[in-house]
Every structure is written in C-alpha cells, then in structure tokens.
Amino acid sequence: MSEEVTTLEQFAEQLAGADEPEGAEGEELENGQPEGEPQNDDQPDPADGEESQEESEEVEEPEAPESADDAVISWETASGEKFEVPVAELKQGYMRTQDYTHKTQQLAREREVTQEHVEQQLGFVQSFAKDYGTLYSTDQQIEQLGQHIASIDRYTDPVGYNSAVNDLMVLQRHRDQVAGRIQQFQQHKAMEVQQSAIEAQRKAAQELSGPDGIKGFGTELVQKWNKTGRDYGFSDEELSAIADSRMLRVLHDAMQFRDLQAKKPGAVAKVKAAPVKPAKQIASKPASNYERDAKAFSANPSVENYARLLAQNSKG
Fold first, then answer.
1. How far apart are CA 144 and CA 178, in angstroms?
2. What is the mean pLDDT of each successive set of 10 residues along the chain, which is 316 residues long?
3. In what helix (H) or strand (E) does residue 28 lie, and over which residues does it extend?
4. What is the domain extent for residue 145?
5. Does 213 map to a domain?
6. Is residue 94 part of a domain?
7. How many domains does the chain have?
8. How far is CA 129 from CA 125, 143, 185, 186, 252, in A?
9. Residue 251 in contact with residue 225, Cβ under 8 Å?
C-alpha cells in the first residue's frame, strides 16, 4: 500500500524517489532475513534437512515489483480531500504543464516585445507632434519678429535693433533644430515602410514560388504582370508597391485572360481561312421493282398499275 502524503514536500520527495529501487527491502532480501527478527544461531538438525529442503521448494517466489510508472501516489489536501494518482499520469501532467508554461512564457515575451514597439512608436508620434507644433509656433514668432525689426530705425535705436536681430538669430537656430528632428522622423518612418514592403514582397515571392504557387514564377513572369497592370492603368510606382500574393494572383489571372482574348480573333480567322472539304459522295442504291411499281401507282392509281403492284407483292 502506498505511503500517505500529507505535505507538498513529501509529495515531491515521493515523486522524485519513485524511480529509485527500494534499497532497504533489497538489503533485507539479500540478507535472507527481515530486519529486526532475531537470528537463530543454532545449527539445523541433520535429520530435518530433507524436510526443510522440501518446504523451501514449496515456497512461492515473490512477485516481480511493479514498474515505477505504475506506483500510486496518494495525498490529502488541507480540506481533507484525498487523491490517488499513478506516477505515469503525474509525469504526463507535469509534461503538459511544462509545455503550457513554455508557451505562456513565449507569448509573454512576444507581447512584451510588441508592447515595447508600440510604446516606441507612440513616443515617436508624440515627439513628432510636439516638434511640429513647436515649428509652427517658431515660424509665427520669426515672422512677427521680422516685422518688428523692419519697424526699428537702426540709427536712432541701435541697441533695440541689435537685440531684436539677436533674438531672431536664436529663433532661427531653434527652428532649424526642430525641423531637423522632424526630417529625421520622416526618414525613419519612410525606411520602416520600405522595410515592411520588402519583407512582404519577400514572403509573397516565397509563397508564389512554392509547391502551391504559380508555375514559371520569376522575373520574366513579373514583367508580364507589370505590362498587364499598365494596360489597366496602374503606374509603375503602384505596381512596385504590390506585396500581397492574392493581388499578384489576380494580376496573373488577368494576364492569362488578356492573352486568351488576344488569341481568339486569330483562331476564328484561322478557322474561316481553312479550306472547305467536299462532302463525301454516297452512291445511291437503285430502286427495286416493287418500289418502282409502288411509285408508279402512287403517281397514277390505275387498275393496270395496281395489278402490277399486287404481282410484285405476291413475288416478295
């Protein structure tokens, strides 16, 4: 009977030792006598040797110990609820738990990376909006300060004129810094869009060149797609931005349809230009005497023609 487990530590200890051989019992079997029983040092009676040998032959061999996975672990919860579960089921549950934990951790890492990316993009947008507002405000100040400088007489008020000019130079330098940050942000976003488009086009190319793709996919086929797109009114810039494999499949079907329509008039003209073969002449079978007399009676139902028809009928 399995040992009752009352604490989590005992449960872990018993689970870890489930695969270990029972050393104490093994030692007791090797010694030939259970531990704790007094050993009889008296020599056996020679007369009883044969009887002891027969009794030893009648002793049943001990059953083979169960495997470690068949061992049953039992424990009792704090509420008094008891459980008994084989080690094999505990191992399977542990493996499922490990797999679930691994997937949960991986999902958490992906979510963390996505959250960082979103926060980074949000920071860029907020910074861009702030810089754009600062640029607009600085342009207004520069315009107002320029109008103020134009109204100052540099000869009668050189101090006020120089102070206003210095303020204008400071504002212009500040404006250049803000405009530079805005330009860097725009370049960064344009590079991100370009990288995303390149990655999408790479995935579309892998899909279209795979086992379920389009036969003959390559540079030559893409050039034909572009020609078809231009025939429908797409620009080269719009065609180069297509990165969805579904749209490319539609463009491929449109190309095939246009090729079929282009070949259709030629096929019709070829059929019309083909020489007409004369109809096969079938030799007519000469009419029999009965058919000739029946025809004559139908044309002229006279007694004479009727008699001839009866005569032919009697022959047939």
1. 19
2. 46 52 47 47 50 49 59 81 80 81 86 83 81 91 92 90 93 93 88 86 88 88 91 90 89 92 74 62 62 74 69 66
3. helix 23-31
4. 116-199
5. yes
6. no
7. 2
8. 6, 21, 11, 12, 43
9. yes
